[in-house]
Design a protein that fits this description.
Mean pLDDT: 96
Number of helices: 0
Low-confidence stretches: none
Largest sheet: 7 strands, mixed
Radius of gyration: 13 Å
Structural class: mainly beta
Distance between the termini: 40 Å
Number of strands: 11
């Protein structure tokens, strides 16, 4: 049974910081590409970042402000969010895909809410 559980969401003022975590179980964590996605009310889901064994990539809207990382020993994915803006308000999801970050992600967490007030 595969489970991805996000945590760390909450409310923060614009310009503040927040760190999200995603604890994975049921998969060989180090063998998966891990990704962060977000979805605001009434809007489509958008990709935020992806973390492989050797690279980390970001969407242009968060580049320079967000840092994604992984701890394979703890089977945990992280998203450090700095200089938060109101536009960052969304439900944040972590996802996993075997080996490659390209294509449809296989597993998804239930999400954690991030609310940024101006």
């Amino acid at each position: 049974q595969v489970q991805l559980v996000e945590s760390g969401g909450g409310s923060v003022q614009a310009g503040g910081a927040l760190t999200l975590s995603c604890a994975a179980s049921g998969i060989t964590f180090s063998g998966y590409c891990m990704g962060w996605f977000r979805q605001a009310p009434g809007k489509e889901r958008e990709w935020v970042a992806a973390v492989t064994r050797v690279t980390t990539t970001y969407a242009e809207r968060v580049k320079g402000r967000f840092t994604a990382s992984r701890d394979n020993a703890k089977s945990t994915l992280y998203l450090q969010m700095n200089s938060l803006k109101a536009e960052d308000t969304a439900m944040y999801y972590c996802a996993a895909r075997w080996s490659s970050c390209q294509g449809t992600y296989n597993y998804w967490g239930q999400g954690t809410q991030v609310t940024v007030s101006s």
